[in-house]
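INFO batch 0412 | record 1 of 1 | parsing
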Amino acid sequence: MPRGRGDLLSSKMSEWQKIFVQNLTVPPHSQRKRHLPRESIAFQCVLKYVEGNLIKQRVLEGLSEVEYQLRLSLFDITYRHFFGRTWKSTTRPLKAVPGQPPKVVFNETIYFHTSLNHPSIVAVVEVVAAAKKREGTHQDLSCGFGILHLFNSKSEPTDVATKDRGLQLYHGTPRALLHPLLQDPIEQNKYMMVIENTHLQYTLRPHPPLETMYHLFPENMLVSGLQKIPGLLLTHGETNDFFRKPHLMKSVTWYLDKLSINLYPSLEKFEEELLDLLNSERLLKDSSTVDGSEVLIQERRLHIGVHNGLCFVQMPQVVVLVPEAEVARGRSASFHRKQGLSAKPSMVGQALVLRSRIRLTEMVRHPAFAIVFQLEYVFSAPSGADRKALSISSLTQAAYMHSIRWTVWNPLLDSSSTEVILPLQGGAQQNPSHVLVYKMPPTSMSSEEVKQVESGTVQFQFSTNSEEHLRTSANSLSNTRAELLHSAKLSTPSLSAPSSPQMLVSTQDYPQGPGLSISQLSASPRSPVSHSSKRQTGSPVPRSPGMHRRERAELPHGGSSGGITHLEADLNPSSLILDSSASDQLQELPFTPVHAPIVAMGTQTGSSSSVLTRASLSRLHAAGFPEILDCNKEPAEVVDPADPVNFNPQREEADFLQSNEIILQFLAFTRIPQDGMGTTWPKTMYFTFQFYRFPPVTTPRLQLVKMDQSGTASSAASSQILFQINKDGTLRSESPGLQLKYMVDPGFLKPGEQRWFIRYIADHNLQIDIWDGDSLLLIGSAAVKLKHLLRQGRTAVQVHHELEVMTTEYEQDTTVMSGDVLRHGTVKPIGVYAVVKGRLHLSLANVGHLCEQRLKKSNSLPPSRSRIVSSHDGTSNFHGGSLFSLHTPGAKNVSQAQKLADVDSELAAMLFSRLQEVSTAFQHASREASVIRRRKLERMMMVRQLEAQEDVNGRRASRMGRREERIQHARDLQIIDAYRERIKAESISSMLIQAITTNYTLYATLGTAEFFEFALRNPYNVQHTVTIEIDHPELSVIVDSREWRHFKELTQTMTTPVEEDMFHLQDNLMPQVYLRPKETIHIPFKYQAFSVDHAVMMQQGPAELRFNKGTEAAPPWKSSAMLTKRIKISFKANGDKPIAILSVNVEPQPHVVDQTFRFYHPELTFLKKSIRLPPWYTLPGAPAGMPGGEPEMYVRCSDPNIICETKKMGPGEPQDVFLKVAGGPSPQIKTFFVAIYTDTWLAAPIQIWQFYLHSLQRVDVSCITGQLTRLSLVLRGTQTIRKVRAYTSHTQELKVDPKGVFILPPNGVQDLHIGVRPQKAGSRFVYLNLVDVEYHQLVSSWLVCVSCRQPVISKAFEITLPAGGGKGSNKRITYTNPYPSRRMYFLHTNRADLLQFKEDSFEIGGGEMYTIGLRFAPSQSTGEEEILIYINDHEDKNEETFCVKVAYQ
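INFO prediction complete | emitting tokens
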């Protein structure tokens, strides 16, 4: 831990040196320095007393005069790093009162401040016993330690303590915190042993008055209230605390003039040796040869600051020194570089001089206040071989710095003016800037006088009189101004701009030093970091007169070199003005951005009053749609969608017709005219939806055919019947409409899923997207409740719906909120409109059927039984028998004996006597090889027969053959014996593992937690600590008893107990559980997956419209795309030996999609949307009667790369789901899911939303309303010739040329001309699709972002018209041609439905007047409308705009 340096003090040290050496601190960890600097927070900690048995008496044997001491240190848990400086209290005796525990009273107050506001930054308190041994020596014994948390999990200071707190103490020493086994949270680590009945009483609170003296002592330094800080006085009335109400000493202003530095033996020789060493180091470090490029001295700087022994009182000033020879010639070093000359050592003089005056405003007449000088060189290595041709462009090379010399001067308190000469210091020793400094020359043979000269000297004139400046440094002022102007000319425009207001102050009034030099403007953040360049990269952030100077204290612990333009920031006195102003750093306000929320479930989920007349409805239902019949060939019962549904689950389960045939009939579509728009209606359409867990469906294209015109003559709405289309484009002669069927049979559902399906029908909605079949543009969406499909004992039911098809249009993404207050305190965002496009006529039916096969009741286990897995319930993998028949299906416990070679092909291949059989077995696949081998065998047999006949000694040969066969068998037996010995251990181990392995299968859906318990038994007669190892992150042990209890209540698994604090988490977070001999416990597990196989499709033009016909062919869970996961859970006892293995087979199931969102967004940009959640009590599956009011909503996204979150806005306020999605290149479609929960443990989502993000090419158009803006898009042909057509989502506002079908040549380039004429001002999106009309494929797509402004209105009119029908009204207005020549004009309006022109164009001569005839259509409702009349020239540019305000009464 950090300690003081009192042993380094000597009697020759000055007051400043003593304080400096005594208060050296350990900096924070290097990783902490990389974080952005934050506001420092001041703390006051009062350590009152320690109570309890601190140390055992036997430890104190042989010790006397035992007293106790407290030590306080700062510690970083994340990096295991002590930093700052350890504070020590005075020693206090132990007081023991009979009947009370022993107590040591301290009542010590400690102050400190830190900007490391992170939860892992803590204060560690150590209790130490200081005693004296018998031989007289002192000994310190650690009695324990405590951890004091400064910040909570939100990086905020811990709650202000209104009363004392007790801090528990742990056995040992704080040095144990450095051990790697002590991981966060430390207090819960098993190695932390609490000292019983012992605690430290303390208080900890923020101390804002300390902010006024931040500049006088550094961060992370613990000081006592009695410690004297240079520059701080004891407040009147205070006796023992300097920091409770800090009182600062008065500062004075001192001036330094005629400053010069001399280096030994001369400046030329010194710099020549320095450059030689740097060049040698560069070549050695880069392992390169001499290439002509050398390190050059780019600048010489001097840092001058006031230091009080603890820290710099203010950021040191940085001034530029120049060689004396250049000053004599009247030229600066930067001027030489401009002329193409390098800073060679031969050009410099014998001293470095400063041509300006130094003004130090922070000096205090105190013996510890000193002035610190630090000489620093800026180097650069040009890339060119000829360093003489150094140009301005080469100055952009990375600059790096080295500290060369430093010194400190303690002025006399009563002096006012004097000449000062100080020796410079260097080498590896402590200095106020905490940097490495260039070495000192060898002085072993030199005297004290020579040593001071050899290290270099700094000489200056010191004064406290400001008037003296006018006499002593008049020339310095003019030189400073010239250097400022010259540096500004050399800098680039981007760099010459002032970085802060300080740079705007003239040096005539405040001549503190030169401005920014070239090296400061060209220094790169990627420059090589030298030992001396470790300082802050940002300018100070003034917050108060003291805090502005306090920032200088962080200089020694700064970050990387970075840009160095901030070094001159405090040279100008405007920083004094900014001391009392607001901070330069912008402070974030408590503001929640709103991204124009979309209302979830905004579509109409039920039928509403019909817009058709009774005659139209009669013709619609008489069009010949297929009749829905039940299993008895009787018409299905018609249910009114307005009637309530009484759902009885028991009645549904008791129905003997367990097979449900779900029928969807798409009948017709009713168009609803849009206000102010002559919308072009689609001729064909198709639908997309997903029912239950079946695959998503895209229907075939359907033709819209009008009914009898007489039926709609008096109706504003026009209804069209849907007809299927043949491949040749003709209509099918069959019955109209489209009918789809789903057969949901319990035989196809998994066990117990029938209840799920019934619950789905009762609670969920079916969302249907309606698409234009020609343009492939989304028309809108509709949602229908499925609850009317519940038969409740009836044979068949059907219901007819008239659904509103709605779409949401976004005119602009804005954060400005209007004042329209809706229900429940919600606010309607500007630019979001829900538009009803039409009505979809849909019939739904549920026809009951008898099951083809009756299911056994054992296949549908109760949840309470199926949730508990036991190794004794017949699910073990091993059932006895041969080890080689483990994987034989239907294996029994009794097995016939078999030859080893018959069951092990590896052994059979090694036996001599079975080579023929093995060869035959391996060659059965090759028919030709078998024929050749058979022929050879036949030949061999014939040859042997002939030899047997000819051989006289045939019998002897036969005996020899049998002997050879016996030898082969003997060899085989030896091989079998060796083989058995080799595989014996492996086979037995495999058998034992199979014997202790239990199988369990679960069916998992997205976001739903699958809970089960495993009965783990200890088979041994001794206790064991069992470690649970799982090889998949989605399966975990439930270690929280509250979560365990929640899942047991949810699954009604209450037959097994719940134990508190059951598991112990090991260091690698593997849970451990203690088992007594022969004990059986239940281990809770949870499987939950949030990730799916995302369909991020790169469409080369979307595929042709397809229809999945075989929806009822296969059950929904038997999808080939979903692979079964196999997860192994090992229960290992001591010695890493498994006592049980659970093999979990996870079969992913398709999930239900409650709502679908589609967004069209520019490619390669972020989509930021806010979706407003509906009231929680309206969501299916939401708990009723929640205690404590509204539940908190939680969201999880299936894609970890998508930011998805929700925030609690307060009671009664709506909740929004915020999304931030990175879009891909066009035409990519990104698909993901969002699950919404209302319970803390995320057991089961109450809603799952599916999102489609279409990335489109973006085209920006800026235009004026009523005026035509033209532009062209480039079309690129595909590999084949295509017949294409362009379609737009806003046909009245965007026109295309060519308008109809045209040929797109293969691999060719063609222009598509578009004209945009918006009807109203604002920003909006217009979609443009290029479609292949033959195959109905999307070739290309654009997102046209229209930004439109209102034209200047030259005249305004006001008329009153009657409302409620009528014949309308005719009016006239006049227009005069302002030009002297004849002109052609065109007329347009923004409300073509309310205003028509007698003539759309007219031509008049110069100065003539023309009367424009207006025809106003009647309005059915009262109110006011503003109609704009655009008068455009022959190029369709707006000449004038008239506004007519029409009042319908």
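INFO post-check: The mean pLDDT is 75.
INFO record closed
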